[in-house]
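User: Hi! Is it possible to get a structure for several chains at once, not just one? Here's what I have:
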Amino acid sequence: MSTIPADLKYTTSHEWVRHLDDGTVLVGITDHAQDALGDLVFVEAPESGTTVSVGDACAVVESVKAASDVYSPIEGEVVEGNAELADRPELVNQDPYGEGWIMKIRPAEGFDPEGLLESDAYAATLED
Amino acid sequence: MSEPLIFELSRPGRRATAQAPLTSVDVDVPEQFRRSSTPVLPEVSELQAVRHYTRLSRLNFSIDTHFYPLGSCTMKYNPRACNQLAMLPEFLGRHPLAPAETAPGFMACLWDLQEILKEVTGMRGVSLTPMAGAQGEFAGVAMIRAYHLARGDDHRNEIIVPDAAHGTNPATATMCGCKVIEIPTGADGDVDLDALSAAVGPNTAGIMLTNPSTVGVFDRNIQAISRMVHEAGGLLYYDGANLNAILGKVRPGDMGFDVIHMNLHKTFSTPHGGGGPGSGAVGVSERLLPFMPVPFVGEAEGGGYRWIDESERPQSIGRLSAFMGNAGVLLRAYVYARLLGREGMPRIAEYATLNANYLMKRLAEAGFDLAYPERRASHEFIVTLKRQARELDVSAMDFAKRLLDYGFHAPTTYFPLLVPECLLIEPTETETREILDEFVAAMAAILDEAGQDAEKLKGAPYTTPVRRLDDVRAARQLDVAWKGEDAA
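Assistant: Yes, the chains can be modeled jointly so their relative placement is included. Here is the combined structure:
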């Protein structure tokens, strides 16, 4: 069974969102997503300054099986892409909710993340 | 693998005298363009070279030695007659810049091939010039884009692509400056019509469809799809990857497609293992005729044939290669088409689908889960090993590797992406029932092994020249070029 931390928010396309104290959010892919993709060989994180809307393909994760887009769960501006992943894509497999974060976004003024799922709702989407 | 690189066999001064020029050649190249150092080439005897490459060829796992059910690749038998006739010295000796009137036979063959492909696909024009499938795709979408631009519809830049599509489809649309709109596939394998209805609009340039699709089923709603896209002002692009399933039976032109690319190296059976050479001929409907890539063959006044180029087709998307496509591949495809004739072509589709459906049923009986059990297969079908992965902790890749030990090339693994732990299996029409039965027996034996000793599968293959490779490390630290002894 994959891990789904209760303190995060989720999307049906398998991204997670963590709200930080400074008002920014961290975004990554879930344990389920990294497990389904298999060992990652390449991650393209977005450059800082990129403006993103909800659903925009803004990062790429590639494994030996497949290449997939990562979609922004947030409207706002990317303040940092995880540069560490360029050399160490395996961090996403090893620690998807920690060191394997993909991008940090500053949400747009007044952005309401109402579409995001709680952990139990996300878990329900994974059941067959 | 025991065979060394040919560079490792090299010894200074060793020569294959038959290939060495007897006298020094006087070359008319300005001094500043001449190299001052000797190129790093292996120095071996002729016998060493012959043995080296013969040994390498025997390490091959190929269509000539093994059943090769690689889904979506149509690894069918390449008739020797096609090779023999394409290798006639008059074809081999023709210079690509030789005037058309000096090669009437060659021109006639290409003209006939264009006409045959028009007839069998239901299109109005065919250009043979794209060098491979991906270039054929590029030509197709470039024509769609050129069509809209010529009408002043600059804003039409959205290409709709189902999520089951080959990865080349969205890549092609992007290369042509279009925006990709992905739509989902329904649970039954057909395109989700509600999603399509929501996706089409005033910016729609077109849709790229593979039919039968990559999940191995014929989209039953193709006429509705065609109507919806055309009513929105978009065009329909047919990805010819799976043309083998319908060859001579159903024509993409009759389904409403405006442009099609054909993989002649697949459907028309020219050798294509190991990356080429290919041929991605394109066919078009009436409205795309002015945009076809050049050159293509036209009839000359007073008989014979001639090249038609930019001077007569100012709206053409242009040239895609130095000359006119891969001549050798086109000639082989032409001979193949003529060997089959009008009567033979539908038999390809009939036996390709019969073999696929037979294999699908037998594998289901042997305990494998089908991705679309309620659907009839086209020329290929998908087995999902999701249950085995969960219950026995073996993956589709483990099955694929173990099949090599049983003397079968693995099916396509992990494609299409929307089916977990999948094997995409395409037997083609050229296999016998005995081979199909042997493949089922091997799959059943591996399933049995998986239940008894999963580790055995994880260690496979055991009998091949190289064992299981570390594909993750290979992808992360790609190293495919010999860089000289200093680097080693």
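Chain B has two domains: 82-339, 347-475. Residues 327-365 of chain B form the longest helix (39 residues).

User: Great, thank you!
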